[in-house]
Design a protein that fits this description.
Elements (H helix, E strand, L loop, with lengths): L1 E4 L17 E2 L7 E3 L9 E3 L6 E2 L4 E5 L6 E3 L4 E8 L5 E8 L14 H8 L6 E3 L13 E5 L10 H5 L6 H9 L6 E5 L11 E6 L7 H8 L8 E5 H13 L5 E7 L7 E6 L5 H4 L7 E5 L6 E3 L11 E6 L52 H4 L7 H10 L2 H6 L11 H6 L6 H16 L1
Parallel strand pairs: 1-13, 2-16, 11-12, 11-14, 12-13, 15-19
Antiparallel strand pairs: 3-9, 4-6, 5-8, 6-7, 8-9, 10-14, 15-16, 17-18, 17-19
Helix pairs in contact: 3-5
């Protein structure tokens, strides 16, 4: 096992962590939804219409440009609504369960590529470059699996896996058949997983050490013309279960975390369930509900739905102290800053209370090496962001644009004095570059 030690980054310690690892039983959700925006690179074309019945694992839509790539339903029921936005963009497909679970069974002895495409698990993979759902016609150089999440209040993926860990070795064998390179799996030190023929790494260091892109950059960076797939260990287990039993599991364990959670806990759920089925006694008033972690998650309403990657819900205050003296400019010793702008750092590392305010406006980029300190990759973050903003392809390529994904800049966005929306800038830049190059 190879050891990777990362020093750059920062562990943001928020209040609202889970103390009790007990997993609570599932609470019935009135409906479920699939959100196409969770699967970057796919232009959806519906296969099911409103009012039609769909089984768990049956395709809801396929990619307009590659019909082999399909996204499937997590439950059996009736397609209640195909929710559309501007220019008829599909924003959500809502399914009402009918209580008659008839999941689709597939032949586990079939070709691995066809199994992944037909089951919808293919849509849970990501490709570097561009951080999109992979092209099934392109064979990857390598595949990287992250077996831990280092984001604030993130759950232990070993708990999320549960008894599905038995399928990891089968998942590795399935992925190995799809690449001429290696399957690399990155774990925290001391993690014990049966990973078969995979090359394993012990990764230590602060967030974003758990990002697959960061791990890939420290194993073997992506060069122009190369393709690498990334995924998390829960998806690896689902792949292993598919090739072993012919079934896809849409069950998950969700970590309900954050300062506003009445009692942070783990809870069983199904992908795409309603948020209010996870809240329990937590009050949603004056509370920001985030599907995911505070750095990369999506803001959702109580009647919204759990978004990919389906294993964390975070609740933080919208405004902790509405009548705070001097607002964001206050010099209270209780205030937190990663740059030691307040005296609170003298108390050492501790859990901090943080609300959803930005506390400042957008400014010009100032060369302070802020991005580089939060990004354990061999790239110049600030110069790369400038190249993306100006759409300079030559500079983007030289500065490592093929290695990155928006989540890699999430911590830098939090620490950014300029208050720029770095993840949005990177996402739009990657989409533009993909359209230009392909």
């Amino acid at each position: 096992m190879t050891t990777i030690k990362l020093k750059k980054g920062y562990d943001l310690m928020l209040k609202g962590g889970i103390a009790d690892p007990e997993i609570r039983p599932a609470v019935a959700s009135s409906d479920f939804a699939v959100i196409p925006d969770d699967f970057q690179g796919i232009v959806p074309r519906m296969e099911k219409k409103e009012g039609e019945r769909v089984s768990a694992g049956e395709p809801l839509y396929h990619d307009k440009t590659c019909e082999r790539i399909k996204v499937t339903s997590p439950v059996t029921g009736i397609v209640k609504e195909v929710r559309r936005g501007e220019r008829r963009k599909i924003e959500a497909i809502v399914i009402v369960p009918d209580g008659k679970e008839t999941p689709m069974q597939r032949d586990p002895k079939g070709a691995v590529l066809d199994l992944l495409l037909d089951s919808g698990l293919w849509a849970m993979l990501r490709q570097r470059p561009y951080d999109i759902v992979p092209d099934p016609e392109v064979r990857p150089r390598d595949i990287v699996v992250t077996a831990f999440d280092s984001a604030p209040l993130a759950p232990q993926l070993s708990l999320v896996l549960g008894d599905k860990a038995q399928y990891l070795a089968a998942g590795v064998a399935a992925l190995q058949s799809l690449t001429d390179g290696d399957v690399h799996v990155c774990c925290r030190p001391g993690e014990q997983l049966d990973l078969g023929s995979a090359l394993t790494y012990e990764v230590s260091g602060p967030h974003p050490a758990g990002n697959a892109g960061v791990q890939l950059a420290n194993i073997k960076p992506v060069n122009k013309g190369e393709v690498v797939w990334t995924l998390d260990v829960t998806t690896l287990a689902r792949i292993g279960e598919l090739v072993t039993t012919g079934m896809v599991s849409y069950d998950t364990v969700v970590a309900v975390t954050g300062e506003c959670a009445a009692e942070p806990h783990y809870q069983r759920a199904t992908m795409g369930c309603r948020i209010d089925s996870l809240l329990g006694d937590s009050e949603s008033e004056n509370c920001r509900i985030i599907s995911g972690n505070v750095l990369t998650g999506h803001r959702v309403a109580a009647d919204g739905y759990l978004r990919a990657p389906y294993y964390q819900l975070t609740l933080i205050p919208e405004v902790a102290v509405p009548d705070e003296f001097m607002g964001w400019a206050a010099l209270s010793p209780k205030r937190f800053s990663i740059y030691r702008d307040f005296t609170s750092w003298l108390a050492g590392k501790r859990e901090v209370s943080m609300d959803a305010r930005i506390k400042g406006g957008e400014r010009a980029i100032v060369r302070l090496d802020e991005y580089d300190r939060m990004l354990p990759m061999d790239i110049y973050g600030e110069f790369l962001i400038k190249a993306i903003i100006t759409r300079d392809i030559d500079k983007m390529e030289k500065l490592g644009v093929y290695e990155i994904a928006p989540e890699d800049f999430a911590l830098a966005e939090y620490a950014d004095t300029s208050k720029l929306e770095l993840q949005r800038i990177v996402r739009e830049g990657l989409d533009w570059l993909h359209a230009e190059m392909c």
